[in-house]
Amino acid sequence: MMESPTEADGKAGFKPMAKNIFILRNKLPLVITTGLLASLPVLPAAANTELTQDTQWLCQQNTAGNGWQCNIAPRKAGPIPFAKRAPVTPALKKAPDIPVVVEGQTSRADSALAVTALTAPANAEVSALPVSPTAAGSEQSTSVASAFATLDWRPLNQLPAARQTTRSALMCEGGYVEPYRPGIDFKGDPSDAPIFAEADESTYLETGQGTLTGNVVVRQGYRQIESDVANMDRNTSESNFIGNVVIREPNILMVGDRADVNMDSGRAEVTNAKYVFHDAGSRGKAQSITRRESGIIDLDKATYTTCKPGSCVWKLDAGKVELNPTSGFGTATNATLDLWNLPVFYTPWISFPLDDRRKSGLLFPSFAWDSGTDGNGFDYTQPIYWNIAPNMDATITPRVMTNRGALVESEFRYLTPSAKGELGGAYTTADQVEDKNLNYDQNRWMVNLLHEQNLTSNWSYRVNYTDTSDREYFDDFGTALNVDSISPLKKEIYTTYEGGGQSSNQWKVSLGTQQLENMTQDADDPYNKDIDFDLTGAWDIGSGFGFDYAVGYTDFQRDKDWKYQKQQLVTTVPGEDVYRGLWGEPTSKNTTHAIGQRLNTDSTVKYRFQNIYSFVEPGVQLRTVNYDLDRVDANSIYVDQKPFKDFGYSDSDLQKPSTAGATYYLDSGLFFDRPASFGNMKFTQTLEPRAKYVYTPHIKDQDLNPNFDSSESSFSYSSLWRNDRFSGPDRIGDTNQLALGITSRFLEDNGYERFKFGIGQIFYFQDRKLFIDATLNDNNKNNDTNLTETNQRKVDANKASTSPLATQLVWNIRRDLRLTQDWMYNTNAGHNSEYAIGMQYLPKAGSVFNARYRYRDQVDRTVKESSGANKGNNKIVNGKPVYTSGNLEEVDFSAVWPLTPQWSVLGRYTHDLTNKRNMERSFGFEQESCCYMIRVMYRNWIDPTKDIDTAETDKGIFFEFVLKGLGNITSSRVGAFLNEITGYSSRKD
């Protein structure tokens, strides 16, 4: 038991102290010198009883008031976790451990530091905090020196191991690291947290003023202040920190010569200062920095940049800067943008983001040069962003093209708890480019609306509407808007209700209308769906039985002049003929001209037996389709030069045809697996044979059915397991077939599929009789003579005893290297039907290399003039035009490849082997650092949507320059090009 201090110790005046730690629970004034121990007892110099991890010293003043009683008690959790104690500074003399008595807790401070506590009101809570690694002796001095010299910047080899391989660290060759300190993880208002202070020496006045000297550290919640000297006044809560001032809050560092701080409100003023935002990677300096009570930071005569220390490609130099970490934005007035220390731009006011939150203002522009004969010339785009509200924004994009004039495109986006959508549009006045420009003298426009609304948890509707002034709009201008389809354009609204809840009977009903607008110059116009209703469902009856069903009703309509006729000359300019498509009414009103209503049903009853190594599923599918047609004439439908009526058909048969048929199938499969290994690699190899038998009897008179939206399905490995040869309900394809296939996989222990190969073929037991084209069906007796090559191939395919042999291969050689192959081989004709092989290499984010070869056997084609007429029309051989190969055969190489973390090359090369022409030749580079990005791309390309013979080569140079921290690109020609490279992703960690 120790005696209380002498009366002399409490006299007014200054009293020097050794290294001191002071702790107060706010709302005491932070004058940590509050009676710096005018009457504090000296604590025991040593303890005879050892503490355990779960115990602590509990010391209280004895009842007589003249000493202390210390006992061991259970440890209580403090308001802030204890940090690892710093090593003892060799310059300080070692002394016995001294227990520190605070808030009912005892913490062991290094005995080299004499410990004192503050006199506090009786109701004040007092806590202790051990010395942090950067707060004691030379450790703290090192921290201060580092803060001033580097602003917490660390070179790559000094970053934490997990960060050294990230994209941002490699690109910047380092990064900002906020050092650990006690309180860094504190949550809440720091003014409600206890206050901690420590220094080498301290003096005080009984009137409430005091001075801390040497390695001063003051902490409150997540806030920490370091300096050489601190003058404090408990009466006003004002403190002056002088010399090597370092102020830290989470993600913020400020350093300067002097700081005036109000410890109650947190307001601070720092002179001759520098600052860093760690997460945003931004920094700067200022004549003075004021941190308001709200956390907003005001800078006077300041700079701002995201470039790393020692490198300043760009900086914002402003009279006044306001940084708001809460909103995530900053503003500057009387600002100059410097590039490589040269002023290039002045603005009286500018706003910029501190993180990835949105802010109104100018976005960075894009530049392009298109030298094609009908190109845009120099193309400048300047997006303007408007952050209307947290859940809505708009982008207004003026665009200037030297060959076409000015265009303005805008987009409005919104998001609510139950809806989301986009509304956009564009408008341009008449331009002056007559050369091959069909609309040079017209005002041109586009509108676009996408809206999705949830009315309830299972009831919703969506709107998708796009319209333009002309068919050539997208070819001439393109768009940055989220257009669902540019050909055909969609104008539709649908509502959907999903029922069944968690029951075994899941169903969905959809009702809507759809209008389609053809945007090509040489194709028939599509059907519109004035009414479109669908009901689909799946019912798990139990015990392996299931029932699938679907009902559809659609009203198909289209204009009478829907049939593409030819290309016609519409205007003539010097040296150029300009053509556009001509559409008209078909000459005969047969089923291809029909409009009207269709009602179709599809129901399947099935039973599935399944265990871990096999499954068997028999099923019966019943389909019906019924029509009520208009615009058909029996006298316009002929077979063998005779009207259909001569074969016993009536007008009613043509106006109200119907078809019903059943499909019977038996699907089965086995699953085997075994251990397998290649070298040190262990796998599970599977063997999965599958067989599916399908029988659909031939149903006559389907050539009376119109073809509203059905087609022949393309063939692939997955086609082996389909029930029908056609997509859509207008035809029920007859077949008697057995599909056999086998798949093998190599799986790693974690389920990753390293290798997969599948091969299969369909064996037909009888010829297929039904065709989509009515002229090839049974009623046409001349279906084997004078056929076009396209129709002859269809006839041969229906008579073949087998389908093409289909294979599929996926080989993940490594996690970053993949090989794929699809091969269809026509065993009847003895040649490849289709072949594709591709390799993709993705070593890391932002880098990719693709190589692909594709071949598809297609019918020969005729070469076309610019008018769309066949060049071979004047060269008749055996009564037919001269044809050329129509096969698709091309190679495609593309890459985005980093040469260094900062430099990457971009490129793509696509060559049409069949027609011996380059489709795409593009090359460019990208330079990216912490604070800027430059992209330059040269492109020489042919639009693949245009006719092979009449399409011309376009050339362009595209340039982008981004200053990180001042804005982002939203509309990017180079960005759009990169998105077309399979596997490319934005350069992120």
Secondary structure blueprint with pairings:
Blueprint: E1 20-25, E2 55-61, E3 68-74, E4 98-102, E5 105-109, H1 137-150, E6 153-155, H2 161-164, H3 167-172, E7 174-176, E8 194-199, E9 201-204, E10 209-220, E11 223-233, E12 238-249, E13 252-262, E14 268-277, E15 282-291, E16 297-304, E17 314-324, E18 329-339, E19 342-353, E20 361-362, E21 366-370, E22 377-381, E23 384-389, E24 392-401, E25 405-416, E26 419-428, E27 444-454, E28 459-468, H4 473-477, E29 489-499, E30 505-517, E31 528-542, E32 545-557, E33 563-573, E34 576-584, E35 595-607, E36 609-610, E37 614-630, E38 638-639, E39 642-643, H5 651-655, E40 658-670, E41 672-678, E42 681-696, E43 711-712, E44 726-727, E45 735-747, E46 753-764, H6 789-799, E47 805-814, E48 817-826, E49 831-841, E50 848-856, E51 876-877, E52 880-881, E53 888-898, E54 903-912, E55 917-928, E56 932-942, E57 953-963, H7 973-979
Q: What proportion of the residues is helical, as a percent range? A: under 10%
Work out the number of β strands.
Answer: 57
Count of discrete structural domains: 4
Secondary-structure class: mainly beta
Indicate the mean pLDDT: 79
From the N-terminal CA to the C-terminal CA, the straight-line distance is 61 Å
